[in-house]
Each structure stands twice: as structure tokens, then as C-alpha cells.
Amino acid sequence: MEPIAKDQALAWLADSDVEIAGAAHAYLEKARHSARVTPPLSEDEFAQLSVEYLKRCLLGTQEGEWVQSRFEAAWALVSWLARQAKQPSVNAVGFVRWLGDSYKANLELRNVVITGLLEHVLGSKDVDRLFISWECDPELAQALSSAREWKKRGGRSPIDLK
Prior knowledge:
65% of the residues lie in helices and 2% in strands. By secondary structure, the protein is an all-alpha fold. It has two domains: 1-67, no CATH class; 69-162, no CATH class. It has a two-stranded parallel ribbon. The longest helix is centred in the first third of the chain and has 17 residues, at 43-59. It is elongated.
């Protein structure tokens, strides 16, 4: 197999067409394919571009064969946030801020954020610490409360998406 230039891999992952970014993401998240990139992508480079791609999927503005659904993106972000919470970074704090702004601005996103992301990621002290600023905002505090209640009742509680 031919090597892939790092600049090309980065360009694909950052492409404005989320379908191209999605295909690159799916391809490069497999170790046998990412090993072809020269010089190698660092874990941080791949993670940062992956989060940007997943944010676009979470917003659900585009569909396609290689574009993850909102819930698939949320589940992938759960894993990323859990890893980030152990060593909080500017990226994680910035993502939580972006998520809060997006939650407040996009009614269609609320159910995904509560049942696809928050429900699965909340509960550890490290992760909860990332979301502490949400407690000061009534809308975001309600999202946290709904996610905790949803989790506590095994996905059987009503969710207030106002």
C-alpha cells in the first residue's frame, strides 16, 4: 500500500465537505490505515480533527454515507470526553462551552445532548467537573438534571426540552 502524506490526511479530515471528512475519519481511525500516514499523525492531531468532524455531525446539517448520525457522533464524543476528563484540556473545556451554546441555540439538538451524550458521560467526578459551569445557567442546569434523571430511571423519565 502506498503511504499517505500527512498533509493530505489532515486536509481530508478538515475538509469543509463533511462527507469527505467522514470518509477520512472512518478510514484513519483504523490502525492499519493510519499507519500509512507519513510522518505519522499524533493522537492529539487526530483527536482534535475528529472532534471537529463529530461536532458537525452532532449539528446534523448534512447527511451522507460517511456522515455519522447525531447519536453516533454523541456516542463517539462520550468516549472522547471521558478520556479528556482525566486530564482536562483547553479542548475539553472549549467543547463543553460549544456544546452548551449549541444546546441553547438548537432545539433539535437537545434530545441528542441529553440522551445520547450527557446521560452516558455524567457520573464521574472528573467529567462532572467539566460541566460545573452549566449549573449556573438555568437552561443548561435543566439539561444536566434531565440527563441524570433519564439515567437514574433507565431511560424512562420524561425529558423537558424547552
